[in-house]
Amino acid sequence: MRLYTFAVVMLLTASTECLQTKVKPAKGSTVSVSTVLPSDECSVCKVSGVNGTETSCTSSLVAEPEVEIQLLFKCSQAVDKAFAATISQTIGEGLKESAEPCQNGYQYTLTMAKTNEKVHYCKAGSVTHLDLLSGAVVSLQIKPKATVEPVLFQASAGPLKGPTVVVTVADNENMVVSRNPKDPECELCSLEGGVPACSPTGKTLKGVSGLSLEFGCLKPQDVYQVEISKKIECVKTSCTPGAVEFDPELFKGFERSLTWVISVPDKTALTLDVLGGGLKEVPASDNCQDGVKYSTETRKSDGEVKTQSFCRGGTLSRLHLPGTTTLSARLPKGGDVDKKLFSVSSAPRASRMMSVIPDKNTIVRITRESAEPDCSVCVDLPPNQKCQPNSLTLKDSRNTSVEFTCPRPQDIYSVEINREIDCTAASCSGDIVQPESSLFPEFNRTFTWDLKVSSTHAFQLDFPAPGMGQIPNEETCPDGHTYSLVTYLRTGPATIGTFCKSGTVTTIQARYKGRVSLHVPGDRSLDAVDFKLKVGPETSKLAIVKVNLPRGVSTTDFTSANYPGDFPDAQQMQWDFVVPGMHNYSVKFHDHSEPECLNGEFGVEYQKEDKKVSKVALTDPQPEHQQGNFNMMLKNCETNRTLEGLGLKFSVSGMRSGHPVLCTVDLTKLQKVSLKIDKVGSDPYCEMSLGSKVVKVVEVAAGSKASLSFLDCPKEDLRLTATQVIECKNISSCPSTLLTVPTLDSCLPIPLHSFKWDIVIPEDGTVDLVSPSDGLEQALPGERFGDFCLRGRIQKVQMHANVSVTAVEKDFNKNKAFLNVSFSPGIPETIIYSVTPEVGTQTLLATPNWPSGMRPLSTVAWIVNLPSQYQAHMQVVNFSQPKCSDRHTSIKVRMLGYEEEMMSRREDEPIDDKLLIPNSFYLNMSNCIPEKKYFGAVTKIILEPKTNILALVLGIVGALLVLLLIVLAAVYLVKMKKKRDRKNKESSIYIGKGNIFLPGDHHFTKSRSDNESHVYASIDESRIYSHLLGDSSYSDSIQDRFNGMQVDSYNTFTGPVDGPLPVIKEPEPDPEMDQYSSFLDPSETFIPSRPRTPIDRQDSLGFEDRRMVDNELYTFKSTGDMNTIRLSATNLEQEPSILEETF
After folding, report:
1. For residue 841, is pLDDT > 80?
2. Distance (Å, rounded) from C-alpha 617 to C-alpha 465?
């Protein structure tokens, strides 16, 4: 057993700061040296190395047996008072405390002095020494035959003196060292001026420096506790000191309680950053595993104190505290902490400032919903600012500043926005009620409308489609927008119901006074129903709910007012149900309670239109599988309110009762005609069947029969289209065809919407489309290329591609014939328009896909045929040029039969504003590969008569010559008369009648109408039809034939006439399309010539795989695809057509 003998090693009798000595414990013994003073004041060092150059200093040190070491004592105080030395010698094995009898026969009992407390020990333990006060008794109980060792203990005696602690306490700190009177006695003495001042209970210290405290017991840590409190002062942006610090060596081994009072100004937030590991918040009653526990007490703005407790070992690294805080730390015996515990900082408390302008007759109430965190709501600005921690009410319709003294007030406060609407004067009929969306958008908001009408009337709420749906009063809507309606009775408020958007309730009427509420959570954007408010009819009922049951199968739930509470006494509530046609309804009660009536009776009444009222009890069977609109009224009596009252939860179900429309379609007699019926409406209950199978789209193949069925399908929700395939395999043998709409089966429940012809031709063929009545007109402006109306200026459309023609008519019975289709050999171009402008009107030509751009590398051409004696003013009135990444755009104009181009412009060249074209001409436009923007144009053509300047000049010259001849003739006659007068002075001859012309006179003796002066000797066909003659040798031969004087050739007379000139109706020149010369070389046209010579891509302006061109927008296709052309029977000169009239 080991027995320790305590003795103070008196190495030096005088006070000194440094002492060096050698120590070598004997065999079986150890020497321990220690100090209770801080290490920066006193330490014992082990000296080693050559010439003692190396030292290792600590506050305690142990010398092993038979090992000599050199010790250096450093201390600011006397060494004999600062250090304690303990010499341990091993005599036997140690003891262990035990409450049970010892097994080896040896049991030690220690009886304490004064308290007589007994402690039992057995051998084979770790206790090697016992510190005892005077009067203590140690006894040993040995079992028989047990061997007793000759030496059991080694005892020594010394003065009752404990450790000495030197402390320094600042002026703003407070230290209390106290002992519980019930604990063992132990004096605490302070050495002030060399005179001990002792106390048996403790001491309170403040503003001392280097004060020595000496305990009068060996283990003062068992009876004394230490409390240390400090202060930290903060301003708006900083704190002094900036950290929570404590010397962990001070009173180490004692139970310590540390407190820091941290004060901050108003509206200042405090932040504590945890140093040396995180914290975790725990309940105040819990203990921490390591015994070290922190707590904070913060006074909130409402005066309450908030307390939080923390243990070490968590993830919390920062504490945000709203104001002045007391930080505490409890350290158990042996508990250890770092010197710096927290860093302290302050900053102006984050707040939210907003400007609020309530509407007139609107009250805004801000109410606290959560006790934490600390926050106040303030109105106006300093110095007149007033703050409240719990609520604020705004009534004035003015710009008001509202400040929240926390960064996220929406987590703490809710807002009610109340508006009063008084309709007693019937002045709010049809008013739309909307919530004020700009107020507090991030808060939980409740919008309330207090409604009031005269006491005999009801206020009426009309909800927009699709209505409102009722839910249980305690639930909320999925979209977060929950509505409720309360009406105020003399007996108290009654909740009509809670509602969500999208349901069957369309109107609610409630009597006299009520409130509509809308609750919206802060995490949802306001998307409210704007319902209409008006004064309803006079009524004695509590409420009237109008319901439109949906089509198809449905079940809708309803509850009585106040459900699951009691329905108000002596009140009536009515539901008006509108049931769709061909539908059955059933009423089912799911839950109800019956009251005890003191006066009157309760029950349910049903009434259909123009029928008697039927009364039923709540337990009776309710209506099932009935049709027609009906009213249901719940009626209550005057009840015994001490018992359960009236309540009802029910549902109304609806289902279809209609019969299907049947139709058998027979397409066997129609050539290659197929049908298709699509659902285009929103009614999900429309059911179409093909045979016995329900389908979404009905398709009847050409040459087949089909049985169709339609159940609950409105006509406006279906669309019927038909398609016919016209195929030409050999151009030479295919006859011309008129596109007509065949008569379909009359049992079809809907009219034909559109009819399409798919025209398929061989590779070497061309489709020629001609309107049977006055041409075609391209639908402008704003329609796609390929949409046309009838009665226009386009005489013919030729396409070297498969074509799809779609006709849309309101009534196909009025117009069944649309286009003449013929077939001709292939042409180099893909599409050609033949246009004949009309005199007196303007003709518009638009590029494909107008007003959007043409496809890249695409080309379009028009052949414009002008009437004789007319010329054309051509103007590009609207165009868009792109920035090309490859190739160039091109706009070219050339007269028929001429090689020279009148205009040729690229995208980087200006376009002529106007162009005067005297003869029929080509207009070609081609696109590049655009990089930006697009290429498109609209061209306007206006005709005007030609002016013959040569004839006018010749006429004027001829008139002058005639006038000169007349003057000369007059002069000659005057001279001749004078000569005759000289010869015959005596006689004169008068011829009274007869022809004044001499026989040899060759003047015309016939009038214009009966002479042959207007008969043509010949007509120069080369001048009239030269633009149609592609063979230049022929035109040259014609010109040679009339070289020299052209006798009897007709020339237009331009002189004065007695009456209007006769109108000569000459046939309009119509160039043969199979003889005309292409405006562009085949290598420059939109599609390379097929299949003669392969052409490189860069040699073709418009090369593009025709199979890749969009079928809806363009007709430039290969013969393997269809090109869409839409037709309309509406002339553009009439009022512009709506969409259904444009084809």
Report:
1. yes
2. 34
d(CA 135, CA 729): 136
What's the average model confidence in pLDDT over 52-56? 77
Gap between the Cα atoms of 2 and 510, Å rounded? 96
Read off the tokens for 102. Answer: 């010892």
* Pairing relationship of beta strands 921-926 and 776-778 according to DSSP bridges: unpaired
Average pLDDT of the segment spanning 503-521: 94
How far apart, in whole angstroms, are the C-alpha atoms of residue 665 and residue 671? 14
The phi-psi region of residue 135 (left if phi > 0; otherwise alpha if psi is between -120 and 50; otherwise beta) is: left
Residue 227 has pLDDT above 90, yes or no: yes
Report the pLDDT value the prediction gives residue 1077, as an integer from 0 to 100: 37
Q: How far apart are CA 1130 and CA 792, in angstroms?
A: 10
- pLDDT at position 427 is 67
Q: CB under 8 Å to 442, separation ≥6 — which residues? A: 410, 522
Calpha distance 1000→1018 (Å, rounded): 29
Q: Please, which residues have CB within 8 angstroms of residue 148's CB and are 6 or more apart in sequence?
A: 142
CA distance 684 to 694: 13
Contact 792, 778 (CB under 8 A): yes
User: How many CA atoms does the CB half-sphere of 950 hold within 13 Å?
Assistant: 2
Q: What angle do CA 913, 918, 922 make, to 5 degrees?
A: 75
**Which residue spans within 539-684 are E strands per DSSP?**
543-548, 554-559, 572-578, 583-593, 597-599, 603-608, 614-616, 630-635, 638-639, 647-656, 661-666, 673-679
Quote the CA–CA distance of 162 and 44 in Å, as a whole number: 19
Burial class (CB in 10 A: 0-12, 13-18, 19+), 304: exposed
Q: Kindly report the average pLDDT of the chain as a whole number.
A: 78
CA angle 39, 40, 43 (to 5 degrees): 45
Instruction: Look up residue 439 and give its two tokens.
Output: 């107020």
> How sure is the predictor about 134, in pLDDT bands with cuts at 50, 70 and 90?
low
Poorest-pLDDT segment among 194-208, 612-626, 667-681, 1047-1061: 1047-1061
pLDDT at residue 639 in the model: 95
Local confidence band at 101 (pLDDT 50, 70, 90 cut-offs):
confident
Q: What is the reported pLDDT for 798? A: 84
The answer to whether the beta carbons of residues 456 and 538 sit under 8 Å apart is yes
Long-range Cβ contact pairs of 245-249 (< 8 A, separation 24 or more):
245/339, 245/340, 245/341, 246/329, 246/337, 246/339, 246/341, 247/38, 247/339, 248/336, 248/337, 248/338, 248/339, 249/38, 249/39, 249/59
Q: Starting from the edge strand earliest in sequence, which strands make up the sheet with 106-111, in order?
A: 94-97, 118-125, 106-111, 137-142
Whole-number Å distance between alpha carbons of 296 and 646 = 54
CB 539 within 8 A of CB 514: no
